[in-house]
Amino acid sequence: MNNLFAERFKSARLMNGFSLQDLSDKLNKKISRQALHKYEKGEVIPDSVMLGLLCEALSVRPDYFFRDAQVQLGNIEFRKLKKLPAKEEHKILEHAKDYLSRYLELEQLLNIETKFSNPLEGMKPIKSFDDVEEAAIKVREIWGMGIGAIASVVELLEDKHIKVMYINAGNDYDGMQTMVLGNNVPVIAINENKVKKEDRKRFTAMHELAHLLLNIQDDLPEKEKEIICHQFAGAILFPADALRNELGNQRTKIHLQELGALKKEYGISMQAIIMRAKDLKIISDNYCKQLFTMFKQMNWRVDEPVSYEVKETSNRFDQLLFRALAQEIISFSKAAALKNLKVAEFHSLELSMK
Fold it and tell me: What positions does the domain HTH cro/C1-type occupy (predicted)?
């Protein structure tokens, strides 16, 4: 019991980005750093009063500390992670592990078997743009997507047994992907603190999907590997046949309103559409440069003049949670615990959905 509490206590502390001294300060020094260290070493378990204070400070429920349902993650590949502080990395990973442990426990209670299958299993190593196009076409074909716009990227990935989650982290991190060890569950996490626009969330999710699915040739430089993942994201969101149907086989000019309309339909940024058109040789390299120069001059590189407003969310976890509650597989208090809410907070959530 002591060891379980110690592990869970440390996870909760890291999930909040606290050092032991930070946590002592958060508790207004009602307990010293040294005493907290004993909790983390498993030498002492706090009494009920102190446990309540820890729950408030760490934003967890009491049962969190005694729930033996942890997950272990495989190798992590973060985008733009070189400057990410260790504290921030721990925070991200602990949030991911906590969410996934609750999600997988819920699926287990409902006897839902997660079976992920990589549609590109056995495909030759990816090393060129043509390889990327072939891979994207194959994924769309096997997943039965046609060539139309994707209504919801997150729901698509969750339907294919890929867990998608949002995390608030520092500005050095866009997204990550990994696997849950032991049951081969893929995970994609998107940093909402940095990736705020809906079209960027879609693109980031598909970029991370590329890292999960593609067998990229090992000896390629990291920069080229990232370009390949960008190209795959563009190819999945806006297939070549669809883009040619919309723009034609060759263009010398594209109207800004055309790009805006396509962004609203396909949920991909205007700049990504321009790059896609260049890669498919619909427009020239020179015209692509001209368009990007204009975007820079107009300060549109970050805030484009047209927005994509469809929210990228998934209700699958909540749907499964209320299904388990309706079938009396779990109690009301257990549902609150899986949602990481107090019973009163969960009751308010339930009422708001009626």
Answer: 9-65
Question: Is there a single domain that holds both residue 234 and residue 344?
Answer: no
- What 3-state DSSP class applies to 174? coil
pTM of the model: 0.88
pLDDT digits (tens, 9 = 90+) for 8-30: 999 999 999 899 999 999 999 89
User: Could you list the residue range(s) of the whole structural domain that residue 238 is in?
Assistant: 72-314
Residue type, 343: V
The side-by-side arrangement of strands in the sheet containing 185-191 is: 77-78, 175-180, 185-191, 163-167
Three-state secondary structure readout of 238-262: CCHHHHHHHHCCCCCCCCHHHHHHH
Q: Which class for 354: exposed (0-12), middle (13-18), buried (19 or more C-beta within 10 A)?
A: exposed
Nearest to 183 by CA among 266, 126, 115: 115
User: Rg of the Cα trace of the chain?
Assistant: 23
Question: What's the start-to-end Cα distance of the chain, in Å?
Answer: 40
Judgement on whether residues 230 and 345 belong to the same structural domain of the protein: no
Q: How far apart are CA 147 and CA 131, in angstroms?
A: 18
Are 159 and 276 contained in the same domain? yes
User: At CA 243, angle to CA 242 and CA 248, rounded to 5?
Assistant: 110
Both 302 and 340 in a single domain? no
